Structures are given as C-alpha cells and as structure tokens.
Amino acid sequence: MRAIDAGIIVCDECHQLNRPGSDEDHGNCRRCGAVLYPRRPNSIVRTWALLITATILYVPANVLPIMTVNFFGNGSPSTIMGGVLELIHAEMVPIALVVFVASILVPTFKLVGIALLLYSVQRRLPMSPRQRILMYRFIEWIGRWSMLDIFVIAILVALVNFGNLASIEANLGAAAFASVVVTTMIAAVTFDPRLIWDNTDMDDENA
C-alpha cells in the first residue's frame, strides 16, 4: 500500500509524514510549514523540458572544442574525444579514461535513463517498479560524479602551465558540457520517483 492510499503525504522539504486537511487543500507541513502536494506539481513536464534542454546542449558540448593542449608551443582546440586522444598521446591514460567515462558514458546514460523513466511512467511500459527505481537510484548516484571531468580540466588548466613547454586551456565546449551536467542533475531532482509506484498495479496486471 502506498502512503497516499493511507491518507498520508510526505513533505518534499523535510520528509515529515502528514495527514492532509482536505481533498482540495492538502495544507502545510506541521514541521516546516511547506505546502503539501501528493506529487510534485508538473514533475513530468518539467523533467521533459530539462531533459530536452540538456539534449540540445549536448550537441555543442561534443562538437565545440572543450580544451586546448599545447606542447612545445604547438596545439589545437580539441573536442571531448579529441581531448581524450590528446591525453592518451601525452601518456596520461588514467586521466583520459576518467574524462571519457565522465564526459561520454555518464552523460549519455543519464539522458537515456531519464528519458526511459519518463516514457515508461507515461506509457506504462511492461517494466517492473523495481527495475525503474534501481535505474533512478543509479542515475542519482552517478549524478554526484558528473562534474568530475570539469574539475579535472580545471585542475589541469591550473597545474599544467609551463609557458611554451606545455599548457592546457579550457574552451567553449567545457561551458556547454557543464550546462548539460547541471541541467541533467536538476532533471533528476524534478522527477518524482513516487510516480513509478503509481503505475504498480497496472504493471502487475500487464505482467
């Protein structure tokens, strides 16, 4: 049984369990005073909007140069994949692996994962709530590592600065990618995971 079926609403701010005042006006949280909602208002619409925005930004983030690696005065702007190859050629394989995973694999998985969650909730796909909630928790977990590559680039820019000998500069692609990361993190927050369990009965009937 869901909490809402028992007449209980969880506060989104402090997670206090509350009993609503009426069907029309759910009132305020008795602990923090926040307005109570059975589900986050317009959760799916807002998450879709943020997801589409992140997808649009993902194109320039991969097409525009993200950094410039200079060795002995020679260097050219590189995209994410180009930067990974430059780091490999510079024998910085561990850093190249971190940038590849954080810049390519993690954002792609987040975009696809959030889209799949939204579509499965709206269309009631034959996907168990357990599978959906595990995917949601994994997306939340990797969200904390999404800015790792931006931090790596920032550290490299600060540390690798030896004039004409070697230097690394951040480019516009880094700003676009940071925007993708922030947008997907907000999208994961605006999605209400309780919507996953609202379709449990329907999924069980289709199973």
Provide a brief overview of the structure:
This protein is mainly alpha-helical.
Task: Characterize the structure shown.
- This protein has 207 residues and is mainly alpha-helical.
- The protein is 58% helix and 8% strand.
- The protein folds into 2 domains: 1-38, no CATH class; 42-206.
- It has helices at 43-63, 80-89, 93-123, 129-143, 148-159, 172-190, 194-198, 200-206; strands at residues 9-10, 17-18, 67-71, 77-78, 166-170.
- The protein is elongated, with a radius of gyration of 22 Å.
- The two termini are 19 Å apart.
- Mean pLDDT is 78; it is low at 202-207.
Integer-rounded radius of gyration: 22 Å
- Which residue ranges are poorly predicted, with pLDDT under 50 across at least 5 consecutive positions? 202-207
Could you give the distance between the termini?
19 Å
Main sheet, how many strands, which sense, barrel?
3 strands, antiparallel
Determine the number of helices (DSSP H or I, runs of at least 4 residues).
Answer: 8
Helix and strand content put the structural class at mainly alpha
From the spread of the alpha carbons, the general shape counts as elongated
Percent of residues in helical segments? 55-70%
Strand order of the largest sheet: 4-3-5
- Written as H for each helix and E for each strand, in order along the chain, the element string is EEHEEHHHHEHHH
Task: Furnish the topology, listing elements before pairings.
Elements: E1 9-10, E2 17-18, H1 43-63, E3 67-71, E4 77-78, H2 80-89, H3 93-123, H4 129-143, H5 148-159, E5 166-170, H6 172-190, H7 194-198, H8 200-206
Antiparallel strand pairs: 1-2, 3-4, 3-5
